[in-house]
Design a protein that fits this description.
alpha+beta; two-stranded antiparallel sheet; 27% helix; 6 helices
């Protein structure tokens, strides 16, 4: 097998175009022609769960799961600032099929059929907000169940959610997060109490967030930590966009 670096690949492509008389053809036209020959992406499949969260052995296309209201697995990742008691929120892209343009969890996503929750949480956080962390930075907070109906009853969400926390020791500016344009329109830091008040009064600018007992216990834990700051013995630094860096506290227990 022959491996080419980027420069070699570019030179080979130029030579190929020269050999076949294509130097004068507009590159955008060539790119469009190649794109038109690509097959359409297959719809994501999700494992169907029972009401208790156990696998049924069946998987279905994501659209079918939401149309039928099947239980399935998802992940929630909350990025919090340990120094200020703030939470990073994302604004959902304006073309999303549910809750478009509303403020939501730092990062979240469905667990694809056959995939694992922790690997999905790491991937979604990296893709959606550009925060790439090792698995040991994920603190498992709780497992929660979420029910919602939107789009005139056409989108039924029955989710079992594995909920994780990533604790930053500083507060990078919003522009330090590289956003996935297809999923996220913007991010902002919000004081946790402001967020919880908005959830309790069902503020229409926010998605209908989970507010069950496991989630309440998670927020109580975070409040206690912010009220009783303690030295952090295990930390790592990670690179963000625009030359920014941030320090992350590694949980002592998983």
């Amino acid at each position: 097998m022959i491996t080419l670096n980027l420069d070699q690949s570019a030179n080979a492509a130029t030579q190929w175009r020269h050999d076949y008389g294509l130097i004068g053809i507009d590159k955008a036209v060539m790119d469009q022609d190649f794109r038109n020959t690509e097959p359409a992406a297959e719809e994501e499949h999700l494992d169907v769960l029972d009401e208790a969260g156990n696998p049924t052995g069946q998987s279905k296309p994501r659209s079918g799961v939401h149309a039928d209201g099947d239980y399935h697995l998802a992940v929630h990742v909350w990025v919090v600032c340990g120094a200020t008691g703030e939470v990073l929120l994302q604004q959902r892209a304006l073309h999303k099929d549910s809750f478009a343009g509303l403020w939501d969890i730092s990062a979240a996503g469905h667990v694809s059929a056959g995939d694992k929750a922790r690997s999905t949480a790491l991937r979604e956080t990296a893709e959606e907000v550009g925060l790439c962390v090792p698995e040991e930075a994920l603190e498992h907070a709780c497992r929660s169940v979420h029910h919602s109906v939107s789009n005139g009853g056409r989108h039924i969400e029955n989710e079992h959610n594995e909920v994780y926390i990533i604790t930053l020791l500083d507060r990078p500016p919003p522009e330090a997060f590289a956003l996935q344009a297809s999923e996220v329109a913007a991010v902002k830091w919000v004081p946790a109490q402001q967020l919880l008040s908005a959830v309790e009064r069902e503020d229409p600018a926010y998605t209908p967030m989970v507010w069950d007992q496991p989630y309440k216990a998670m927020w109580e834990l975070l409040r206690w930590r912010w009220d009783h700051p303690a030295p952090t013995s295990r930390t790592i630094s990670v690179q963000l966009a625009g030359g920014h860096t941030t320090r992350i506290a590694l949980p002592t227990q998983q």
